[in-house]
């Protein structure tokens, strides 16, 4: 875990001390509530990476997600540190 904490992003919460996947849930719930109160459009995407990428051509899926506006940091692999 010490090694992992040297490179892991702060937004990653699973299997980390003092972090919980519930942190992600509550942050997302607040963002949804704020968008609803302000009347803003809100979009989401949920992927099951193991099943999704086992069955779909990666190039097509990644291009589709890019054209829909997904952040480039998510679409490309992390660089070795």
User: What's the helix count?
Assistant: 5
Estimate percent helicity: 55-70%
> Which sequence of SSEs, written as H and E, runs from N to C?
HHHHH
Taking pLDDT < 50 over at least 5 consecutive residues as the criterion, the unreliable ranges are none
Instruction: Quote the distance from N terminus to C terminus.
Output: 16 Å
Gyration radius (Cα, Å) is 16 Å
Average pLDDT value?
Answer: 78
How can the largest sheet be summarized?
Answer: none
What structural class is derived from the secondary structure elements? Answer: mainly alpha
Description:
It is a single chain. This protein has 81 residues and is mostly helical. It is built from five helices and no strands. The chain has helices at 2-7, 21-38, 49-55, 58-67, 72-75. The radius of gyration is 16 Å and the shape is flat. The model has no long low-confidence stretch (mean pLDDT 78).
């Amino acid at each position: 875990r010490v090694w992992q904490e040297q490179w892991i992003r702060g937004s990653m919460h699973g299997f980390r001390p003092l972090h919980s996947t519930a942190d992600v849930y509550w942050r997302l719930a607040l963002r949804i509530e704020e968008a609803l109160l302000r009347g803003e459009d809100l979009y989401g995407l949920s992927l099951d990476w193991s099943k999704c990428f086992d069955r779909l051509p990666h190039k097509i899926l990644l291009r589709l997600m890019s054209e829909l506006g997904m952040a480039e940091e998510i679409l490309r692999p992390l660089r070795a540190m």
